[in-house]
Amino acid sequence: MFQDILKERRKTLGLSQEQVSILVGVERSYYTKIENGLRPSVKVAQAIGRVLNVEWTIFFIENGAKIAQTKTA
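The structure assignment produced for this chain is given below.
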């Protein structure tokens, strides 16, 4: 699930949800909802992908976890 990947990458990078939300350009509450399973817009997904260095399409495909793990490995 993309939620687990987001949390793991954020923690690995030593970032808080607040820091990620600022870098992405969204409210912290919105980013928190994304980490809890809300699918973001394409624009926000792309921004999260850049900030956390994950493939932004993980939000929109079934096997997103495998793709993201391959990119970050």
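Interim note for the steering committee: The radius of gyration is 11 Å. DSSP finds five helices and no strands in the chain.
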